């Protein structure tokens, strides 16, 4: 099998389910009506309202995007990127691979990805005549340097653990050899791991330089200009960008605005051009503003992240599964959706939506405070301890409201809880370092479940830095992940991920709350709001598809009307 530019066939390793392509220039599935404001689409409770483009894209303009958070740096091999970091990263870097509208991984910066017969060797060939923003050429050696840096990284190394050797085999080719078959490997390269940094971001030993996290250099549509942490990241149009005629914007700026309502207000007052949000309260408000013609709105129709409480299963206070089971029974999810999520969120009992091809029904419990009290009493009688723990969150007002409600649920069944508030970057860092007990969390949502496997493998649950942030170790989960990773048969993969869900419902590393919904809102002078076409001309997945992040978009084909 050969994955190459322009290859439209359904590959055995890829998800082949269709999505509704919600784009400004294309009709979407679902009910649709044309209004004076443009196109309105509604599918499964999700709404998109945009203004149709008239004529060719226009060049020029300074564009400002409001982000939910700041990142700790922008070297993809060493810095922690959440959705905001990924959004910035996709402006400066190009991914080797991106998903098309059918959720099939297709080459982007890569020209082709070719496996051997058993998927233990992959040859990555990059496009010719592409240069980094510092003038150096993109070649096979640059991919080798990048992948070796990931392999050596304490942060991203676990994500590429099956890789054994990496070598440059031609002017434009790097060969990746695995310890075991990795059928879905291209899906990983849609993520942070596939964003290609310039060789100048590494020292002679191939390690990320200190300056590289502050001054990123890629092949992307915009070249770094300046970064003032917690204030502004600026980049200007890269004149030698390899996608002819792109980008259309002269410059782009990213401003972290952690407060959801403040971010919406900045858009309404035209201080910024676009925002992203996963706040159900803000999405409810934005829907009305879009209906009134005051802005444009595109909601992510793809795989969603989940909102949940993540539990440090190795913490002594939470290592007994009875405590975690009691927590699941204690949470009134219906009341939570109504009070916290404006009544428009979708209830979650696992990592996949019921509409997902990967979904399997499990025995994950519904709200039952009497059963929760009984488990708490049993645990307390046996150990002499009342379940006591700290719930962590960020300063976001909605998060504060959420943890207060959850705290009441737990206290009502006999647990003792306190709340800890941390700034977002410290909050994420504490998670990967295991310096927490219970955190309000949002994660997962990968187009291909294998891309999320790094968060669930038991081998990633130990050490100073852990990507299995729940630190949950279960051989049955590892076995399911291996079967899903190594098989080319879709039925086998579905069963593997059904088994994964069954074990999660027994281990309780996550107390599920809701499936998230991401939305992009923009001023009425913005066009090309979603991802646009892939380099070969076929439509991209409209929103998301950068590894396991929904709600991210590329700005390669975005423009402002005059």
Description:
The chain is α+β, with helices and mostly antiparallel strands and 562 residues long. It has 2 domains: 3-219 and 518-560, Dipeptide-binding Protein, domain 1 (Alpha-Beta Complex); 306-515, Dipeptide-binding Protein, domain 3. It contains 12 helices and 25 strands. The protein has helices at 83-92, 140-152, 185-188, 260-268, 280-291, 321-330, 333-340, 369-383, 397-412, 424-432, 475-486, 490-507; strands at 3-4, 31-35, 38-43, 46-50, 62-67, 97-99, 105-107, 110-115, 121-126, 163-170, 173-178, 222-228, 232-237, 251-256, 274-277, 296-299, 306-311, 346-347, 388-393, 416-421, 438-443, 510-515, 519-522, 526-527, 559-560. A 7-stranded mixed beta sheet has the order 12-13-14-5-15-23-16, sandwiched between helices. A hairpin with a 2-residue loop joins strand 3 and strand 4 (46-50). Helix 6 packs antiparallel against helix 8. The longest helix has 18 residues, at 490-507. It is globular and about 70 Å long.
List keywords for this structure.
562 residues; Dipeptide-binding Protein, domain 1; 2 domains; 12 helices; globular; six-stranded mixed sheet; seven-stranded mixed sheet
Q: What percent strand?
A: 15-25%
Highest-level CATH class of the largest domain: Alpha Beta
CATH architecture group name of the largest domain: Alpha-Beta Complex
Spatial extent as radius of gyration: 23 Å
What is the CATH homologous superfamily assignment of the largest domain? Dipeptide-binding Protein, Domain 1
Overall mean pLDDT stands at 89
Number of domains: 2
Q: Which fold name fills CATH's third level, the topology of the largest domain? A: Dipeptide-binding Protein, domain 1
Helix residue percentage: 10-25%
Low-confidence segments: 1-45
Give the tally of β-strands. 25
Shape: globular
Order of neighbouring strands in the sheet with most strands:
12-13-14-5-15-23-16
Q: Main β-sheet: number of strands, strand sense, barrel status? A: 7 strands, mixed
Structural class of the helix and strand makeup? alpha+beta
Distance, first to last CA: 47 Å
Count, helices: 12
Question: Quaternary state, please?
Answer: single chain
């Amino acid at each position: 099998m050969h994955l190459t530019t322009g290859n439209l066939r359904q590959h055995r390793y890829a998800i082949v389910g269709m999505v509704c392509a919600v784009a400004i220039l294309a009709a979407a599935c679902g009910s649709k009506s044309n209004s004076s404001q443009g196109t309105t689409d509604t599918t499964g409770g999700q709404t998109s309202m945009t203004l149709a483009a008239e004529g060719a894209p226009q060049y020029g303009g300074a564009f400002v995007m409001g982000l939910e958070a700041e990142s700790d740096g922008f070297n993809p091999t060493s810095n922690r990127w959440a959705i905001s970091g990924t959004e910035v990263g996709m402006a400066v870097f190009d991914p080797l691979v991106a998903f098309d509208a059918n959720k099939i991984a297709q080459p982007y910066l890569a020209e082709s990805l070719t496996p051997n017969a058993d998927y233990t060797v992959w040859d990555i060939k990059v496009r010719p005549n592409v240069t980094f923003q510092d003038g150096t050429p993109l070649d096979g050696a640059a991919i080798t340097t990048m992948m070796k840096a990931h392999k050596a990284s304490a942060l991203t190394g676990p994500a590429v653990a099956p890789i054994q050797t990496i070598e440059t085999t031609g002017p434009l080719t790097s060969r990746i050899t695995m310890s075991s078959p990795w059928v879905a490997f291209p899906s990983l390269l849609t993520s942070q791991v596939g964003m290609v940094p310039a060789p100048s971001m590494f020292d002679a030993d191939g390690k990320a330089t200190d300056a590289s996290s502050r001054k990123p250099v890629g092949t992307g549509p915009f070249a770094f200009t300046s970064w003032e942490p917690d204030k502004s990241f600026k980049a200007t149009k890269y004149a030698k960008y390899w996608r002819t005629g792109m980008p259309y914007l002269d410059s782009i700026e990213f401003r972290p605005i952690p407060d959801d309502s403040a971010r919406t207000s900045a858009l309404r007052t035209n201080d910024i051009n676009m925002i992203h949000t996963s706040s159900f309260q803000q999405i409810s408000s934005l829907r009305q503003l879009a209906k009134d013609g005051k802005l444009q709105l595109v909601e992510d129709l793809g795989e969603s992240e989940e909102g949940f409480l993540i539990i440090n299963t190795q913490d002594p206070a939470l290592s007994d599964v009875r405590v975690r089971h009691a927590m699941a029974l204690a949470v009134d999810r219906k009341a939570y959706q109504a009070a916290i999520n404006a009544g428009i969120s979708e209830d979650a009992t696992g990592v996949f939506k019921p509409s997902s091809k990967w979904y399997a029904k499990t025995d994950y419990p519904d709200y039952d405070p009497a059963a929760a009290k009984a488990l708490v009493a049993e645990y307390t009688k046996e150990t002499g301890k009342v379940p006591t723990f700290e719930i962590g969150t960020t300063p976001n007002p909605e998060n504060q409201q959420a943890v207060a409600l959850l705290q009441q649920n737990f206290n009502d069944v006999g647990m003792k809880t306190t709340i800890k508030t941390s700034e977002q970057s410290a909050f994420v860092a504490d998670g990967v370092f295991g310096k927490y007990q219970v955190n309000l969390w949002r994660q997962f949502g990968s187009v291909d479940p294998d891309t999320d496997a790094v968060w669930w493998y038991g081998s990633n649950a130990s050490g100073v830095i852990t990507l299995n942030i729940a630190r949950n170790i279960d051989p049955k989960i590892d076995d399911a992940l291996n079967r899903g990773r190594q098989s080319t048969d879709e039925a086998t993969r579905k069963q593997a991920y059904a088994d994964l869900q069954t074990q999660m419902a027994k281990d309780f590393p996550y107390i599920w709350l809701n499936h998230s919904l991401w939305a992009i809102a923009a001023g009425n002078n913005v066009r090309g709001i979603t991802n646009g076409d892939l380099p070969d001309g076929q439509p991209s997945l409209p929103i998301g598809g950068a590894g396991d992040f929904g709600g991210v978009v590329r700005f390669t084909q975005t423009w402002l009307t005059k």
